[in-house]
Amino acid sequence: MMNSTMIIAVIGGEEASDEVDRLAEEVGRELAKRGCTVVCGGGDGVMEAVCRGARAEGGHTIGILPGHNADESPPNQYVEFPIFSGLGYARNSMVALSGQAVIAIDGAYGTLSEIAYALIHDRPLIGLDTWHFAYPGHDAERLVRADSPQDAVEKAIAAAQRRGVP
Amino acid sequence: MMNSTMIIAVIGGEEASDEVDRLAEEVGRELAKRGCTVVCGGGDGVMEAVCRGARAEGGHTIGILPGHNADESPPNQYVEFPIFSGLGYARNSMVALSGQAVIAIDGAYGTLSEIAYALIHDRPLIGLDTWHFAYPGHDAERLVRADSPQDAVEKAIAAAQRRGVP
Amino acid sequence: MMNSTMIIAVIGGEEASDEVDRLAEEVGRELAKRGCTVVCGGGDGVMEAVCRGARAEGGHTIGILPGHNADESPPNQYVEFPIFSGLGYARNSMVALSGQAVIAIDGAYGTLSEIAYALIHDRPLIGLDTWHFAYPGHDAERLVRADSPQDAVEKAIAAAQRRGVP
Amino acid sequence: MMNSTMIIAVIGGEEASDEVDRLAEEVGRELAKRGCTVVCGGGDGVMEAVCRGARAEGGHTIGILPGHNADESPPNQYVEFPIFSGLGYARNSMVALSGQAVIAIDGAYGTLSEIAYALIHDRPLIGLDTWHFAYPGHDAERLVRADSPQDAVEKAIAAAQRRGVP
Known about the structure:
The structure is a homotetramer.
Chain A: E1 6-12, H1 18-33, E2 36-40, H2 46-56, E3 61-65, E4 81-84, H3 92-97, E5 101-106, H4 109-120, E6 125-130, E7 132-134, E8 143-145, H5 149-163
Parallel strand pairs in A: 1-2, 1-5, 2-3, 3-4, 5-6, 6-8
Helix pairs in contact in A: 1-2, 1-5
């Protein structure tokens, strides 16, 4: 790919506390400041906050929605490029696949599925205040914990650069 | 649905220790003895063992494979009805959706994604020696732990009966 | 695959005239008499008629539904094994992929997409009173026309046997 | 949606004659000149030509690829935002769904499936030298024929404006 743009997936739930909203918006801002495009599920909560932050800094935002159209799946107002998958939550694998790295923030069961897909498909995975999971024989440390939005973005970009294009 | 057959999804990894293989085969046997059909991912490991057990007791087995055909995704030899999805691991959501209850045995990251889908789509979920996961605000006890194959099957059938058809 | 069962996909629309219903039911009967399992989209119209015919002769029927559950996508009452894809009409590719041959009967735009998928994925394709389509450089004769349900079933089985497992 | 950008899907085959390549590039140029973003399958042939034309005029291009990563599905070099679906050709429905209108140029069986999806999901559909198809009871004129790239783009934009956001 000749494209210079790095695309980072941000995953998280449709509901966000004020604190989680602030973290996600800051992740969006930091990604855009560094020239990254955000891909996410295009909905509310963490998805809206990260898009809001990215757009505030002039970044591009792509939302891969579950429904067939904007009536069924309204994109949040900060999604620049809505993709209507019509696949329901089966679209979660695509969100993880479309990032050169994946940042998980908070999240519900959908986020847990996207974490699993990032691990299945070997995408670098950074967690900011998100799920814990464990099973013998599987290295839970493949999810690298970050302690701030800046730290999450720096770790995601560094991991994506080490890995190259997806 | 007029169909009297109960369909139970069994999820687990492509590799299985002897002990896990034994558990999965026994789950298959118990499901078939009670007249249930098994749906799974159709591959090796836990999937093969559960199909082997079910077929040994005369049960039906459906395998939803990731690939487009048997060359790309060979079904294990105990899959009676192979469904070729061509969707890769995005087919995981369908495995969970197609069971009136879901039994998770052991498992890797694919299993973690299927656990998440069972929770997203509100399927009763029984765990037999499988992933632990936790996040504040989400009730990890929605995965009900079983302590034997018999216990897992009894809990799955009871939950499916309480819930009705999916 | 050790499985002796041949699986044939039957595609067609959710609405069927009396004449089309009769053709589809007869295709289902003929498939079951010859020991074949039917896979289809699980809905009404042609899908219901082919399942009705197959079940009347003791055959197995698998329906790959668009929705997440029976409330959203009620399987017709002759579907023995409902698979809930949750993928909407994106599930059409799976219906074509899961047959060792594909029989198209009548049909609307969904059927046209399934015809295209049978051609994309190189499944033998038999048409019984269905779409015509043409474009220079593409051999429309890859859809083999049949003139009766018996003829359609014989051509489908012969083509599947020549080709082997999918 | 507050987004002012109109997204138009362009569908066509992985191989293109010189003449088809010229038509597709011109469609891309005309879309970009009018401020539209192109969504396509991200591959070679018509997809590459339409992206090349759009990028030459400063337009945005989104490619929804069949594979899991750039090794498996290299995006053409004019795709600005690659989305890796991992769904194989089942991704075709998403390409049609993600356009406020769909322009079909030339094309093989994949294009025929995308034409069917545009009709299933009621997207305005413009054809430039593409498939013919017919079946009693289905109005083939829902595919509006254009006689030049300019005509195709004008008809697509006008239809999308009449219809509103997807």
